[in-house]
Amino acid sequence: MNHRLRPGTLAAGALTLTLALSGCFSSGTSDAASAGGGRISLAMLQPPRSGLSPLSDDAFKLSRWSTAETLVVLDDASDPLPALATGWDQTDELTWRFTIREGVTFHDGSALTAEAAANSLRKATEASPVPRILDGVDLQVDVDGTTVVLTTADPDPLLPNRLSSPQLSILSDAAYATGAVNPVGTGTGPFELTRVDGTSSATLERYGDYWGEPAAASGIDVDFVPDGTARAAALRTGTADIVEAVPAGQAASIEEGLINEVPMPRTNTLYLNAETGPFSDPAVRAAAREAVNRAQIIASTYEDRADGASGLLGPALPWTVDMRDDASYREILAGRPDPAGIDGVKVSLGTFTDRAELPEVAVLIEQQLEEAGFIVEQDVREYQFIETDALEGAFDAFILSRATVLDSGDPVAYFAADFTCDGGFNISQLCDDAVDQAIAAAAQTDAGDKRREAIMAAEARILATDTAIPLLHERVIQGEAAGVTGTARDPRERLLVTGETQVETQR
């Protein structure tokens, strides 16, 4: 395989709120941009959990600030494209060679070389715990001139996709000088991370020697604001230019033009226990499937800020939509059994409180199932106290909000974890030879159209069992003040502030 590409009271109340919020934000935000080329103020949902180490989920912050970059990026269809690597070749089923881009410098002034890139990848393979994207991957990293040579123990058609994960960002050697990985001043992106104030704030400046187009804005002032009401108020009052994750309940209080709904690769699904209990009968599962009213759930709990689910994969993967019209897909679903008549069948229904919407969804699902003749007993706890029971099949039904596209940009890992006989997250206790074979076929197919076809065939096989009833696909609400342009609205949540982002008008 070869890949090469060219590169009054109300007023008083508002004033009080504004003054109160000013304590939540770093002093840099008061000097934020009044025109293009100025600074951008950003309010983020979660503070760093691991000191902004790229080997953790904090890596996604670094990529959303355009400070750390990877060898590969993904296009909208999740196909790999060159980034810090200009191209790659697969020389045999286990070996890949990535050519490193010339003329790139790290923020500390050192040059990007094949050895520097290999050093970052080696640090990732040696980390404990290993970054999630490399879980189960035995990867050897070598250097040959200007190329990084990667060898896997088993064939891995998704290796270029894996290298797009922010957890495999390439940093200078200086980042690894101590035990902890330090991203300050060691990335390659259009913005240099210059200061981190614990879990409170971070500061970035335009990097003048960036290898691509220089950033339009002079810098970014980041504040970590876990409170959703405070984030929403920051957008309303102009305290922040860009706001992550505006709560759905706050969206109605914000001027419509300031919020943007981005489909997420996250599906709320009703899992049915195929191994024991009433739902071990496929016809009873079919009755539950027919009882579900998605529109009611979306209108009531999500205030119509979600998408109804016709499959496990949603509009964050737009290529899935038309493929469900394929005759072979419909033929697989046509084999589902007719619903059984239900009269007083008792079922247990579990979910968790950590995602505020799920207990409300459980109430509606209970009502819908009971209208169909089921008798439902709910069990709702914090996730940490219910996960073990869910995975061990203690419930007849379980409602879960599940990320469907993991770090590789590909849903096969999710299918394998949730729906194969040996899957480590198989809440529905499903073990079906046809499903296992379909998922295995998708896993072994190279990235591209053929893999997407295999993925949809696997989805159809899973849905045909009625062990997973997709309810809805979540959206994230991104706030952007008037005059903000050039932001990314990324379903994978890897990008946000880009080199093109700027504030064109005064707040």
From TrEMBL:
Coiled coil (UniProt feature): none
Keyword vocabulary terms for this entry: Signal
A Pfam entry, by short name: SBP_bac_5
Every Solute-binding protein family domain range: 80-424
Signal peptide annotation: 1-32
Domain of life: Bacteria
PANTHER family attached to this UniProt entry: MONOACYL PHOSPHATIDYLINOSITOL TETRAMANNOSIDE-BINDING PROTEIN LPQW-RELATED, PERIPLASMIC BINDING COMPONENT OF ABC TRANSPORTER
Protein name: ABC transporter substrate-binding protein
Taxonomic source organism: Arthrobacter halodurans
